[in-house]
Each structure stands twice: as structure tokens, then as C-alpha cells.
Amino acid sequence: LHKHCISNFRVSIVGASDCGYSRGLLSLAYDYKLLDHIEFIPFGDNVMQFLSNADIGVTTSLNESFGRITVEYLKSGLVTIGASSGGTKEILDEFKGAYQYEAGNAADLADRLCFVFNSDLQAIALQCSFNALHASKLYNHENHYFSLSEALCIR
Questions:
Q1: Which pLDDT tens digit goes with each residue over 41-73?
Q2: How many other β-carbons are positioned within 10 Å of the β-carbon of residue 135?
Q3: Lower CB density within 10 Å: C or N end of the chain?
Q4: Hey, CA dihedral for 8, 55, 43, 111, is it positive or negative?
């Protein structure tokens, strides 16, 4: 994002901050002089409270099987950006104004983020509200129970 002259951002990475992966991310942030823009937040029980303070949700997993966090982003009304692989791709294909980038391609992700930052934020907010309603209708306990019972032939 710095290469695109965007400096007003904060990245919150939710998960274990004491593992090797997190230390590697911190090392990269240090190398690229981004430490002031990144925070690590430990896993917690109240994901929705955390998401209520976010503007954009990014799923970076190279192969997210079910895409649950992507659905949480959509249901929270966040601008949602996800890697075009696995369950995330299948989910985002259903939503206008949700963005995909080539899995593993940081430059493509940066381009998507810059597109959002340089877009009509009012129009994006309206689309995110529609996406939240659509996601809430598609991804709820009743629909998942029905789909599971159909798959298992339970009546």
C-alpha cells in the first residue's frame, strides 16, 4: 500500500501472536517499516465485537475449506476481500461488491485494496449493507440444517 501512496491504514491480525508464523510477519513488518500499522490480536470469543470496529475483512488463506470467516465479514457488512481459492472463492462468487484476488499474490491484493480506498465509499457502504442482508439470509442455522439434512437424507 505504501507503494500506492496510501499510508492511513491499520492491519489487525487475529490469531496466536507467539507462534513462528506471527514472528515471521513481525519480521516482515519491521523490514518494510510497517510496525506502526500492524497489531496482533489474540483469538477471542467475541468475533462480532471485533468486526464491528473494522472496515475491511481480508481472507488470505491459500485454501480456506469452508470460508467461515469470509461469511462473518459479509454478515458484518464489511468490505470483503478474499483469495480466489477454496470456500472463499465459492462464497464471494455470490456477492456483488465483494472482491477476490489471486491467492498468494500480494500485488493483486494491494491492487484490490487500493481500488476500494479510491472508490466511492458511500456506494461501497450501500453494497456492503446489501451483502450483509444477503449473507444473513443465505448463511443461517436453518439453511445449514436443511442442507445437511438433505445431504444425509434425514427428514
A1: 887 777 778 889 899 999 998 887 788 889 999
A2: 23
A3: C
A4: negative
